[in-house]
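--- STAGE predict ---
source: upstream dedup step, 1 unique chain passed
mode: sequence only
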Amino acid sequence: MMRLLTAHKILIATAVIFFVFFALWELRNHANTNDGWAVFRAALYFLVAVGFGVYFNKLKRWYK
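--- STAGE serialize ---
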């Protein structure tokens, strides 16, 4: 049986992958259209991915 922490870690890891992919997509959008806001959105998505990554690494310590 899967523990709740394991399911939570799977969802957080999926979110990290999603936000990194979405940031790269926005950078590609910037390269194709020269949209300045795409760079801002890409940086924001990278920051969210980093935040989720930090949260993912701290999860184990919080639930001991």
